[in-house]
Design goal:
It is a single chain. The chain has about 350 residues and is an alpha+beta fold. The protein has 2 domains: about 190 residues, Fructose-1,6-Bisphosphatase, subunit A, domain 1 (Fructose-1,6-Bisphosphatase, Chain A, domain 1), CATH 3.30.540; about 120 residues, 3-Layer(aba) Sandwich (D-Maltodextrin-Binding Protein, domain 2), CATH 3.40.190.80. The chain is built from 8 helices and 17 strands. The model has no long low-confidence stretch (mean pLDDT about 90). The structure holds 6-O-phosphono-beta-D-fructofuranose.
Length: about 350
Amino acid sequence: MKILPYAPDQSGLAYSVGTTLDRFIKLKQSDFPFASGELSQLLRDIALAAKIVNRETTRAGLSNIGGAFGQVNVQGEEQQKLDVIANIRFMRALSKGGEVCAIVSEEEDSVIDLKNSSGKYVVAIDPLDGSSNIDVNISIGTIFSIYRRRTPAGSPIQEKDIMQAGTEQVAAGYVLYGSSTMLVYTTGRGVNGFTYEQSLGEFFLSHPDIQAPKNGEIYSVNEGTQHDWEEGFKSYINQCKERRYSARYIGSLVADFHRNLLKGGIYLYPATKKNPAGKLRLLYEANALAYIAEQAGAMATDGTQRILEILPTTLHQRTPLLIGSQEMVKEAESFLSKPA
Ligand code: F6P
């Protein structure tokens, strides 16, 4: 019997499809000597739910899942049916996976205790970000943060397991349901992006080791609220215009963030009269993107403080957010008045 070593095909007849997310997660598990595979499984659970939500969003116009659900969430925002569907999908995946003990979701008033006290991880999630864009076929996203619980596995969930600063995240990511669907995540060793290949039903590594440009020429802000801005903020945006920067605002944080991360730019949501503490939620929007931003060499602040260092005091706490290319965020911050 002849035994030959495997020789990769050189004919070019069957091009390589690349590295799947599953394989990538497995390869990277050895970066964490103490990890026993639960975090990897948790990331896979999130990816599975993302594929299902991707299926629902792409066929939303054909099935009866568009439009309002008829209820208002804890933020006072009208829930869309797809918000609710995405919440169910992620909740189900996370509860069945067994690695998670508690979930904070934009769509739930309280912390959800999965009654799985052996689970090591807490997940904070915005299942479907950019609700106003759902029904008009514009990019939307999912944002997630993963924390290790502070109390020992096996004991009841406590507030200190949930109210952790962003610096404590062990992983964070987002899924962008855009012209293609992408999953981008970090476990604190750089940022990698994966594009969904519909026909194979897999995410493939398409954006390895994402590095954000240090500077950029795109600013993303809802200028309709400008009469509510503080003077310094107005001056910064005026300067962007004087410099002929491009204004790009989709109104889905994930999509605006993703573009600026790749191309160089800044996303800003300041305090306004309507939202004096800012609009975006610290636990399941700002923290995850701030972690990814920093891991890619970008920056995130609330105007005076690094987002990741803010200690949350309430579950659905809001924060102003300036996030994107380092030089732009530093410059924008320098325009803002400092607290007395
Ligand atoms: O989750 C909040 C959100 O929908 C973000 O995705 C988006 O960037 C922002 O709100 C849009 O807010 P506005 O409609 O006030 O510009």
